[in-house]
Specification:
The radius of gyration is 19 Å and the shape is globular. Helix 3 (about 35-55) packs across helix 7 (about 225-245) and helix 4 packs parallel to helix 5 (about 140-150). Helices cover about 40% and strands about 20% of the residues. The relative contact order is 0.16. The two termini are about 35 Å apart. Strand 2 and strand 3 (about 105-110) form a beta hairpin. It is α/β, with parallel strands linked by helices. The longest helix is centred in the first third of the chain and has 22 residues, at about 35-55. The protein has helices at about 5-15, 20-30, 35-55, 115-130, 140-150, 200-210, 225-245, and strands at about 60-70, 90-100, 105-110, 135, 155-165, 180-190.
Length: about 260
């Protein structure tokens, strides 16, 4: 069986982490689609294991959490009857945590937007921390029980609840409703009002959509298999955390979040 040499592997991986789709990489490199997917699975699995094992005992300070929507296989309304309600078909959500100071992403979780997956995500975050932190989420109620169940009283927790106006007439599909206010609600401990924010994690959502073709809206580049979706996310955060210098961390020299 022919194997890609290291130079060709690097070429494919560079294209993947810079947001190119699988079919585009096939055209650019001449590497077969199945070979690229096999490389993604092997490398993504290694990235997942490495970060799971090494992103531990982290001394972070200001954590922001959010979830980003995507779909797999087909949009929810188009999922075949035999796959209705089966994970990996239709709507999927990726929970993400980011530290506002270091910009490190300590953990993420692909699942459903429900209380069970919210608790699993928040509990995983708690196990990775070495100290008490300030935590901010949006106003989704699933986070209330998740944070209480995972951290108890050992966290300074607040919600940032955004209030939206009506959707722009005639542009419902493409333009989000205008955010008319953001209300800060301290929930637990003593969160600093100046740092009750979800700006960094919302910016990370944009980074994910720009860096992974699978997250791009209104295209056919969406994931067909949830396993490949997870591998792509693991590769993205390996590159983000360990390889790409963050523009806000350039003093005194360019640094990665890790």
């Amino acid at each position: 069986m022919n194997k890609l040499n290291q130079e060709r592997q690097i070429q494919v991986v560079k294209a993947l982490v810079e947001g190119n789709g699988i079919n585009g990489i096939v055209r650019m490199t001449g590497v077969a689609k199945n070979t690229i997917l096999k490389l993604l699975a092997d490398l993504g699995s290694s990235c997942l294991n490495y970060q799971n094992e090494n992103l531990r005992d982290l001394k972070l300070s200001r954590i922001q959490c959010d979830e980003i929507w995507e779909f797999c296989y087909a949009k929810e309304k188009n999922v075949p009857a035999k796959h209705k309600g089966e994970f990996g078909y239709g709507d999927i959500w990726t929970f993400v945590a980011i530290d506002g100071e270091t910009k490190l992403v300590p953990c993420w979780l692909v699942g459903q937007r429900d209380a069970g997956h919210a608790f699993e995500f928040i509990d995983d975050l708690r196990q990775r921390l070495a100290n008490r932190v300030q935590l901010t989420t949006d106003g989704h109620k699933m986070y209330l029980e998740a944070v209480e169940g995972a951290f108890g009283s050992e966290v300074d927790y607040a919600m940032l609840v955004k209030v939206y106006g009506a959707s722009p007439e005639g542009e419902v599909r493409y333009s989000p409703a205008e955010c008319i206010s953001a209300e800060k609600h301290p929930i637990q401990g003593n969160p600093d009002p100046a740092h009750i924010s979800t700006s960094y994690v919302e910016r990370q959502n944009l980074t994910m959509r720009m860096s992974m073709k699978r997250f791009t809206r209104l295209t056919n580049g969406f994931s067909k298999k949830v396993e490949n979706h997870m591998y792509a996310i693991a590769l993205h955060f390996m590159f983000y955390n360990f390889a790409r210098p963050h523009k806000t961390l350039a003093n005194p020299y360019p640094r990665t979040p890790a």
